[in-house]
């Protein structure tokens, strides 16, 4: 971090600033020019609040030379992280396809879809029991009953399961859920992130609707800073001015996030586009861009789905999608 001081700054205020930084174990290198004085902060500056310094009377500007995330940063962890979800590896060449309905609707529905996606090559089963819906009158999910049905599908197929947790009070219901999903709307629910950071369970963190890449990585940092480093990131589209698609899939985020972070990155082409016929081309694009996996909404009867039917693909279309992915990633370790 570099702090540029105002001309004719008050020396006592500067001494106070330096003393405060030193109390945080930050070394300060002072460069005095003819007009301007610049401070170079050396040490773990991730704990220093740049805005607080920027607001000081004596400070002209603050420039960040290091990303504010440390544990998620590839600079301090050059090799790819592999997250193990009950035996299914994600990252570092382990390509993982997660599939299942947006919402769990009945035992027959979730078990039937689980069988067909497993046969087609899915490595994990998704299914929402707690649904974050825009309208309070829309289907909210089967909640605890939904989780029970998802557990039956896990028992029957052996597939690890993924489900969204919306509030920490729901945690007891998620004991046997293998991968806990933090949805886009909760990406910056910091209390939830901190609690999930205390668990010994992998977390699937989806990018917020209007979140920057840095905000996504800072949210991962929250989970990791609390002790849980098993985080899988998910690019699921962001809001733009475009209205044809539900969101705009940020393909460039895939190689960029992988450059900045060692965490695995998977892609959700279903929520990114909101259009079932775009799911296959976007999946192929994501795989080609270096994603570590996909999470795809599959429904046995999309027109009658209780949630997100227009973006859901059938089991047959899913099998075709997996074949396409295998064709472009012949050496990936897992499907
Ligand atoms: C979901 O995966 O069911 C979901 C609600 O996705 P998102 O949080 O990305 O909107
Ligand atoms: Mn959905």
The portion of residues forming beta strands comes to 15-25%
Count up the helices.
10
Which architecture of the largest domain would the CATH scheme give at its second level? Alpha-Beta Barrel
* Main beta sheet: 8 strands, parallel, barrel
| Distance separating the two termini | 43 Å
Number of domains: 2
Shape summary: elongated
Mean pLDDT: 96
CATH-defined fold name of the largest domain: TIM Barrel
CATH homologous superfamily label of the largest domain:
Aldolase class I
Bound molecules: phosphoenolpyruvate, manganese (II) ion
* Unreliable runs: none
Order of helices and strands: EHEEHEEEEHEHEEHEHEHEHHEH
What Rg is obtained from the alpha carbons, in whole angstroms? 23 Å
Structural class by helix and strand composition: alpha/beta
Q: What is the helix fraction of residues, given as a range?
A: 25-40%
Spatially, the strands of the biggest sheet line up as 7-8-9-10-11-12-13-14
What is the total tally of β strands? 14
Question: Which class of the largest domain in CATH terms?
Answer: Alpha Beta
Q: Could you walk me through the main structural features you see in this protein, from its secondary elements to its overall organization?
A:
With 335 residues, the protein is α/β, with parallel strands linked by helices. It is built from ten helices and 14 strands. The strands form three sheets. An eight-stranded parallel β-barrel has the order 7-8-9-10-11-12-13-14, surrounded by five helices. The chain is elongated. It binds phosphoenolpyruvate and manganese (II) ion. Phosphoenolpyruvate (PEP) is lined by residues 102, 128, 132, 164, 183-185, 206, 236, 268, 271.
């Amino acid at each position: 971090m570099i702090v540029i001081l105002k001309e004719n700054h008050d020396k006592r205020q500067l001494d106070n600033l330096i003393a405060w930084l030193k109390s945080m174990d930050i070394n300060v290198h002072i460069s005095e020019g003819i007009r301007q004085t610049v401070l170079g902060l050396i040490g773990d500056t991730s704990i220093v609040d740049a805005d607080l310094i920027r607001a000081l009377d004596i400070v002209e500007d603050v420039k960040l030379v290091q990303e504010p995330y440390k544990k998620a940063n590839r600079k301090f962890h050059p090799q790819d992280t592999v997250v193990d979800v009950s035996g299914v590896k994600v990252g570092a060449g382990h390509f993982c396809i997660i599939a299942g309905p947006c919402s769990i609707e009945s035992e027959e529905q979730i078990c039937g879809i689980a069988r067909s996606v497993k046969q087609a090559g899915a490595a994990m089963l998704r299914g929402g029991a707690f649904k974050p819906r825009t309208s309070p009158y829309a289907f909210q999910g089967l909640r605890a009953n939904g989780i029970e049905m998802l557990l039956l599908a896990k028992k029957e197929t052996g597939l690890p399961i993924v489900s969204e947790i919306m509030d920490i009070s729901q945690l007891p219901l998620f004991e046997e859920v293998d991968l806990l999903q933090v949805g886009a709307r909760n990406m910056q629910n910091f209390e939830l992130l901190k609690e999930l950071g205390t668990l010994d369970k992998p977390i699937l963190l989806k990018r917020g609707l209007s979140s920057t890449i840095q905000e996504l990585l800072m949210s991962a940092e929250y989970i990791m800073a609390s002790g849980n480093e098993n985080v899988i990131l998910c690019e699921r589209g962001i809001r733009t001015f475009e209205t044809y698609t539900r969101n705009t899939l940020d393909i460039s985020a895939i190689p960029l996030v992988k450059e900045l972070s060692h965490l695995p990155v998977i892609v959700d082409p279903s929520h990114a586009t909101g259009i079932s016929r775009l799911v296959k081309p976007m999946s192929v694009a994501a795989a080609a861009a270096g994603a570590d996996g996909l999470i795809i909404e599959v429904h046995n009867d999309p027109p009658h789905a209780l949630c997100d039917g227009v973006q859901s693909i059938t089991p047959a279309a899913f099998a075709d999608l997996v074949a396409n992915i295998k064709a472009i990633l012949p050496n990936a370790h897992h499907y």
